[in-house]
Amino acid sequence: MRLPLLVLLCSGLALTLAQHNPHWWGNRNTIVHLFEWKWTDIADECERFLGPRGYAGVQVSPANENIISEGRPWWERYQPISYKLVTRSGNELEFASMVKRCNDVGVRIYVDVLLNHMSADFDGLATGTGGSVAEPAKKSFPSVPYTAEDFHETCEITDWNDRFQVQQCELVGLKDLNQNRDWVRTKLIEFLDHLIELGVAGFRVDAAKHMAAEDLLFIYSSVRDLNINHGFPNNARPFIYQEVIDHGHETVTREEYNELGAVTEFRFSEEIGKAFRGNNALKWLQSWGTDWGFLSSGQALTFVDNHDNQRDSGDVLNYKSPKQYKMATAFHLAYPYGISRVMSSFGFDDRDQAPPQDAQEQLISPEFDADGGCSNGWICEHRWRQIYNMVGFKNAVRDTELTNWWDNGDNQIAFCRGSKGFIAINNNLYNLSETLQTCLPAGEYCDVISGSLVDGVCTGKSVSVDGNGYGYIHIGTEDFDGVLAIHTDAKL
């Protein structure tokens, strides 16, 4: 029997308010999206790199069975066929092992989950990565099982300002589940509960705006608490962040979902891209955050790019513009706004391109060069020194305020994070050469962009801070990067 909506809203609100907590270890506070990686490789990466470098968590690709599509494009992962935990990334045992190994080194796992739909039309029988078969055209998915009555009526989205079409018609032909049906809710809750049982910390909910908020409230409120055997406290709720693309003029808005969990702040991605592409002066970033029309900091999942919009033309930056991308990421991780996620991509020349794979169309593992970067089709931005050292910066300055903003009236900016960190950025075509207030105690500090503090020595630039907190800052137009960053954990 369904609860009356008012009762559901009242009982669910207290639970959903807790679903904004990512359950990070210590001072860690950055998620990385290891897009399309295998489970065994993610487990290895947690132990050898992510844990030691202070990453807080990993967003993993969808874990449940999907159709096998010709050429194995990345988007086949978003065409589910059952809730078996078998994909190109690995099977359930490998998934469970990954979650445990990552939790053991303080790196949380967040799963990209597909609650809105099943696979789109397929010629005849579709075969899944776990051996299941289905007839998507008939809305027949026997391995769940779902039948036609578990879906909304077939219709296309032609008007994105028509709530009925957005939430009950088929997104790019994907068979649209009816989350108001008890059976559908039951199967979705069972799926999420199983992932929680295996130790995950939360979920990225794909296509959330295509589902009614009251249906998601019921589902979120019904899932179990996190598994205490994986280091979570009693009564801890899963962290939920929801994909809601809202450019400010949609009928279905992010404000319908932000109390249920965090929401992906796509405007952040677009505006930061405009700024660092030179289409908006960096001086205006002083008021970054809610003054720009963004969600409140604790409700916004923020990113420079994600696996979808990095493939689109426009203002969004990606790895193909590395200098600007690293500057934007440094600002993202230095400025105290949002729940930060960084992207770790594979190289692509067209939008549908498959991740790196062998002749049998199986995923291949990343390989690493002498500097620790990836070298065989994987981009691995999270292993770029300028990015992982800014993750360390963000950890070092956690819970401090932004102070002492400086700019040159154009595209050179600098600011402090309390008395723990300082960053300067130069996006002009001339040198930044200034004596600036760093807010740091007197001493010699390593710039974590051009190098690191290794065995008591700076491998890149250094900055001498005097007894009044001032230091001479130089970022030349010839410099490889347009950023300089120092913090208390990088003091000689």
Structure description:
By secondary structure, this protein is an alpha/beta fold. It has two domains: 5-264 and 346-379, Glycosidases (TIM Barrel); 402-490, Sandwich (Immunoglobulin-like). It has helices at residues 5-17, 39-53, 92-104, 163-168, 182-197, 213-222, 266-276, 322-334, 385-396, and strands spanning 30-34, 57-60, 108-113, 117-120, 126-127, 133-134, 174-176, 202-205, 239-242, 262-264, 300-302, 339-344, 402-407, 412-417, 421-426, 432-437, 443-446, 453-454, 457-458, 462-465, 470-475, 483-487. Strands 1-2-3-8-9-10-11-12 form an eight-stranded parallel β-barrel, surrounded by five helices. α5 crosses α6 (213-222), α7 (266-276) crosses α8 and α8 runs parallel beside α9 (385-396). Residues 1-8 have low confidence and may be disordered.
Largest sheet: 8 strands, parallel, barrel
Q: Provide the domain count.
A: 2
Q: Assess the beta-strand content as a share of residues.
A: 15-25%
CATH class of the largest domain: Alpha Beta
What value does the Rg take, in angstroms? 23 Å
The CATH superfamily of the largest domain appears as Glycosidases
Average pLDDT, rounded to a whole number, is 95
Strand count:
22
Distance between the termini: 65 Å
Query: Per CATH, which architecture of the largest domain?
Result: Alpha-Beta Barrel
How much helicity do the residues have?
10-25%
